[in-house]
Amino acid sequence: MGKRLASRLKGGEVLAFFGDLGAGKTTFIKGLINWFLPGRRVISPTFIIVRQYWPVRTKVSQIIHADLYRLEKIPEIEDLGLTDFYNNPGAVLLIEWAGKIQGFLPEKRLELHFDVKEDNSRIITIKHMNQFPHLKNIF
User: Fold this and answer.
1) d(CA 4, CA 15)
2) CB of 14 closer than 8 Å to CB of 93
3) What is the pLDDT of residues 33-53, one digit of tens each?
4) Which of 67, 84, 112, 122 makes a 20 to 30 Å CA pair with 25?
5) Is 124 helix (H, G, I), strand (E, B) or coil?
6) What is the pLDDT of residues 66-85, one digit of tens each?
7) What pLDDT score was predicted for residue 71?
8) Domain ranges (residues) in the chain
9) DSSP states of 40-109 as a string?
10) Residue 138: its pLDDT value, please?
């Protein structure tokens, strides 16, 4: 699913990922990044907070992957400079644990909510899809 979504991204999108630990956010993001950079080992930036990639395959010139799991204080979040990438026409911003910066997220964003069911299957609910006409009817 991550690769399918990636194939339609044009740049300028902010994707906010919500869900509990182990819900599949990072796996989805790895698939998305691998569409742009096939074979690239994608490592979650849990300890360095932000990792950047420069695809060569599409109009997207930069992917910023932020993992906010370890952040606890608002000043730490503000210091990351993620807002610099909001509406950047060449960049795609992926934010794991987006709930930690709910008040700082741009209005124009795609939200992906991951839920794990009792049988260990996943349900992904996507919100604000109507803000991105180029993603219409993707799933």
Assistant:
1) 14
2) yes
3) 999 999 888 988 888 889 999
4) 84
5) strand
6) 999 988 776 666 677 788 88
7) 81
8) 2-91+107-135
9) PPP---TTTSEEEE--SSSS--EEEEEE-TT--SHHHHHHT-GGGGTT-TTEEEEEETGGGGGGGS-SS-
10) 83
Q: Are 71 and 98 in contact (CB under 8 A)?
A: no
Report, in angstroms and rounded to the nearest whole number, the Rg of the chain calculated over CA atoms. Answer: 14
Q: Hey, what CATH topology would domain 2-91+107-135 get? A: Rossmann fold (3.40.50)
Q: Counting every residue, how long is the chain?
A: 139
Which residues are CB-contacts of 58 (< 8 A; sequence separation ≥ 6)?
9, 10, 36
Mean pLDDT (the chain, rounded): 90
Q: What does the pLDDT read at residue 85?
A: 84
pTM for this prediction: 0.92
CB 10 within 8 A of CB 134: yes
Distance CA 114, CA 82 (A): 22
